[in-house]
C-alpha cells in the first residue's frame, strides 16, 4: 500500500525508491517486484559491507537514480494505465549523510563499543562517541553478550 511503501524501503536500507503502481496488497506488490527484477536482471540485495562502501561513494547516488529512471521507462508501457503512477524518485540517502566516513569495525571476541547509536541501514549500526564515528554489522552480534545503559 502507499502508506506502507516509505517505511518498507527505509527498512530495506534503500537509498532511492520509486513506486511504479498501486496494488491491492503487499503480496501482489512483491510478485510484481519479483517479476520486474527477473525481467530486467535487477540485483536488489548486496552485502552489508557493500552498503557501507556505497554510503561513502558519491557516484553511487547518481547511479541509483539512473537505474530507477531506466527501469521505470522500460516497464511503464507494460503497466495497466489506470494503475500507473508518475515517476517520482524518493531520495532516502539524506538519512545517511551523518554517517559518512565512519570507521568499519569487525566485532570479535571481547570487542567493546561505547557511544550513542545514531542510526542504521539494513544490518549496519552507526555509533558515535567522543573518539569518532563507527559502523558495524549487527549480524556480528549474534550469540554475543551485550551490555546496554540508558
Description:
The chain is built from four helices and six strands, in the order αβαααβββββ. The chain is α+β, with helices and mostly antiparallel strands. The chain folds into two domains: 5-96, no CATH class; 98-141, no CATH class. The chain has a four-stranded mixed β-sheet. Strands 1-2 form a two-stranded antiparallel ribbon. The radius of gyration is 18 Å and the shape is elongated.
Features:
two-stranded antiparallel ribbon, alpha+beta, 2 domains, 150 residues, 4 helices, 6 strands, 4-stranded mixed sheet
In short:
The protein has 150 residues and is α+β, with helices and mostly antiparallel strands. The chain contains 4 helices and 6 strands; from the N terminus they run αβαααβββββ. The longest helix has 18 residues, at 58-75.
